Amino acid sequence: MKEMRFFLIPNLDKAGAAGYTQQIVDKLRQLGGRCYADDYNEGKFADGLVEFVPFQQMIQQMDAVITIGGDGTIIRSCKRVMPYEKPMLGINVGRLGFLADIEINQLDLLEHLFTEEYQVEQRTLLQAVVKKQGTTGIFYALNDVSVTKGGYAKIVDLEIYCNGRMIMDYRADGVILSTPTGSTGYAMSAGGPIIDPGIDTIGLTPICPHSMFSRTILFSPNNVLEVHSKEVNNSANVVFSVDGERMMTLTSEDSVVITRADKTMGFIRLTQNNFCDMLNMKLLERG
């Protein structure tokens, strides 16, 4: 088998994660792999078996990135890995792990990395451009972009535009714009549909709207969507978040423009499970 290099990103806050990472390192080394991890984790696991280096210094030389944790670990890691176009494999040691491909008791499947018996599934990302007080910020989301009420707001008024034309005026707790990957996250909790990741679309889901019309709208990924706040009295009333991470507050002078990103995120699939298999194992059987 050929030598391969892997950058490991474990969530060491999870119970047992250091021990699980040790198992993964042992298996990869047994198969002929070399393992690397962030230098700030040195001394926390696998001493002498992992090369601890700065992420940006070595990521270009990696064959793949392996996360050890749950969906949160994968989503956070995506932000780091995406600019380098390296595929990522998620090993679940969390509770649900819908984005992860294998469980910790399936480490024998790691052999497929060396025999090239795997697929890389490209997942759609969203690009959100925030235009705020003369400045512009660009953000990327694997799951979703949300514009929601702040901690002290009872409800917010939002206008939604598609290709420059206003199509919806919501009084609600907020709105979620999601990828198919994100349809099983925040958007699902808000009553949105589960979307096969093979469908290229952007979902718009209102959160607790004061309206008889409260259904998710699925847009063509070629559309340009824009969210404007009509709140003028208190900028803290409206919050912009990416993949659950609060980024900034918005005023009526600001806007958020959402499009399909020109980048994708590649996920390694070692199993033969398709979307329906994953849906049954991760959601339906646990419902």
Percentage beta strand: 35-45%
CATH architecture of the largest domain: Sandwich
Strand order of the largest sheet: 3-2-1-4-5-6
Average of the residue pLDDT scores: 90
Which residues sit in consecutive blocks of at least 5 with pLDDT less than 50? none
Order of helices and strands: EHEEHEHEEHEEEEEEHEEEEEEH
CATH class of the largest domain: Mainly Beta
Shape: elongated
How does this model look, in words?
- The structure is a single chain.
- This protein has 287 residues and is of the alpha/beta class.
- It has helices spanning 17-30, 55-58, 71-81, 111-115, 186-189, 275-284, and strands at residues 4-10, 33-38, 51-53, 64-69, 88-92, 102-103, 119-132, 135-141, 144-149, 156-162, 165-172, 174-178, 202-207, 217-219, 225-229, 238-242, 245-250, 255-269.
- The strands form three sheets. Strands 3-2-1-4-5-6 form a six-stranded parallel beta sheet, sandwiched between helices.
- Helix 3 (71-81) links the parallel strand 4 (64-69) and strand 5 (88-92).
- The protein folds into two domains: 4-118 and 270-284, Rossmann fold; 125-263, Probable inorganic polyphosphate/atp-NAD kinase, domain 2 (Tumour Suppressor Smad4, Sandwich).
- The chain is elongated and about 60 Å long.
- The longest helix is centred in the N-terminal third of the chain and has 14 residues, at 17-30.
